[in-house]
Amino acid sequence: MSDILADLAFLCGKPKAKAKIKAKPEDFIVLEKPGFEFSGSGEHLLVKIRKTGENTKFVANELAKSCGVKSRDVSWAGLKDRHAVTEQWLSVYLPDGQTPDFSGFLASHPQVQILDITRHHKKLRPGDLQSNTFNIALTDVSDVDDVIARLKQVKQLGVPNYFGQQRFGNNGNNLSEARRWGKENVRTRNQNKRSMYLSTARSWIFNHIVSKRIETGCFDSFIAGDIALENGEPVLVKADMLDSWNQKVTQNQAVITAAMAGDNALPTEEDALLLEQPVLDSEPDLMKLICGNRMRHDRRNIALYPEELDWQCDDNRVIVNFSLGAGSFATSILRELVEEIPVERDYN
Known about the structure:
The protein is α+β, with helices and mostly antiparallel strands.
């Protein structure tokens, strides 16, 4: 698989160390934390699963068969990697209040365990997450000292809040399709594809704005005309207030944002507009897709700070633990630590 994000800037320079990531599923463990408490009653059966080497959509489809419902009646809060050990909740629309016998499902899928079952009055939807906790083993690490030094930098400086390569599909196929849809003015009633390609388009543009900020030396400081988030509210940063706003960044009282492009004009001004607008202009087909679907402009933090970050070393293995809020990518952390050594995997 080619790395279509290879041209994006690194915050602390390209890593010296190489390592394998997900050499086996047990090297990449993800635990999901929902964003709310379940009611314990309602039309939706919630099933907590632990899966090894399987993707979320496959397990959801098989669970639907076991419950005698259609695939669309099973939903989730977030997709989880196939080449990993992951725990997550799935919701099944079963308004009769009955709990199916899952023995046949479990016997047919030994890579899946059911850890808990409850009910809720609403189905799970993408984004119904508070966070994911990661336990990741980097193996065959070529330079452990460099990885440790970089982990200390990540703890202090964070990393670019890039959307991960999985957002863009195998070998960038989603990106290619998003550009084609924009160029050819494709229309569809398939809401899943529409949402996927729009997300791909906006994520690609966001990534390159963030990369540009690193290249121009303004990743960790405001420039005139930026949009800050203070207490969750967007605020325009004027040139004569830069010192004050940069002090707020240092004190974690405000964050710097970049554009999630929409069909309306960028709200940035002055230097920030001069930085962001050329990135949008460089992707006319993606912008045609975004504007043609009336997506509204939004903002996203440019920096990502992993919570509860710690690590342990064992010879040429480095075990890294951290938590990330919904919508952030563990691969953005790992990208700043090591250059990945390709691993042969079965994609059948």
